[in-house]
Amino acid sequence: EVQLVESGGGLVQPGGSLRLSCAASGFTFSLYSMSWVRQAPGKGREWVSGIDSGGGSISYADSVKGRFTISRDNAKNTLYLQMSSLKPEDTAVYHCAKGGRWTYDPDSWGQGTQVTVSS
Q: What Å distances lie between residue 89 and 14, 48, 82, 109, 112, CA to CA?
């Protein structure tokens, strides 16, 4: 079955950077769009970024545009999210998901990786 394992989160100061990774298995990774979504305590799910199967079409939520960069390495079945200029409001559990902004499956998320932005 579909398995998505996120890593790379941690504690970082405001203005700092982190690179998240998502290792995918159980499906043909190169054929699917992928997304990053996040959820902060007491708040709803927020779609963050998406990338098409070949990596040529990319989109971002307004809240992260200009600061985050999504990419993928289909040869490694891995999705990435480079996060820069981090803000406290970026604090959340970050998940990757199979599918794009309108087609991702939130029920297929793994445990996610915690990102905490605090001084």
A: 10, 13, 16, 21, 17
Written as tens digits, the pLDDT of the chain (119 aa) is 999 999 999 999 999 999 999 999 999 999 999 999 999 988 989 999 999 999 999 999 999 999 999 999 999 999 999 999 999 999 999 999 999 999 998 787 879 999 999 99
Question: With contact defined as beta carbons under 8 Å apart, do 13 and 29 qualify?
Answer: no
**Residue 105: exposure state from Cβ atoms within 10 A (0-12, 13-18, ≥19):** exposed
Question: DSSP secondary structure string, 88-104?
Answer: GGG-EEEEEEES-TTT-
Residue keyed to tokens 């891995």 = 78
Taken in order 118, 92, 8, 67, the sign of the CA dihedral is negative
